[in-house]
Amino acid sequence: MFQSYGIHGPVLGPVTGLAIDAVLLALAFWMLSSPDMRKMTNVLTFVTLIMSISLVRIIMSPLPNIQPVTVAALIIGAQLGARRGIAFAVLVTMISNFILGDGIWTLYQALGWSAVAIIGAQSNLIVDGELQLNRIYVCALISAFLFDFIVSLSILGTVSFTGFFVYLLNGIPYDLLHAVGNLTIAAWFGVWFSQSIANFQSLEEIEQNVVDGYVTRT
What we know:
With 218 residues, the chain is mainly α. It has one domain (12-217): Arp2/3 complex 21 kDa subunit ARPC3 (Orthogonal Bundle), CATH 1.10.1760. Helices cover 75% and strands 2% of the residues. Strands 1-2 form a two-stranded antiparallel ribbon.
């Protein structure tokens, strides 16, 4: 919402900005700290996902509050698990904001899309390997308003409570555009995107395979 409305939160100094970026980067690598991510194929696949969605976000940035990252975060959270979903959300935010503009809002965007990825991981969007469209439509609608609200919190230090409330009201049209964009992206590309990363095992699947292998040996 705030990108289209023209409010970007308080201005940060270079040291503070660097500190925020360092914390986000550390969080992303911590979320990715699993043995399977040492495999080159998994690393390349994940990097491709991040770079592709970052590029799509940059290309679509002229459109008012159309956020392709939201649906991608939902599906990646559902397909690959919450940890990878959070890492994806953080890295896409940082990389795309390197072009679109970095600031305090980067932290809130990363938090917002991380929350969306967690929703995707907890909502049973993938059943028997198939993306459940009705469920992702509902999650896409909820995620649009949730993400926009979290990002809106970035301006609290620059406006009064009344000003913040007015800002939220003025941002409703942009929230609706985000929701409609999410539904459109989910309907057109959701199944394809889910299938394109289906061979990338989730952390839960890897852990289950380890358990099954141990039980078989014993």
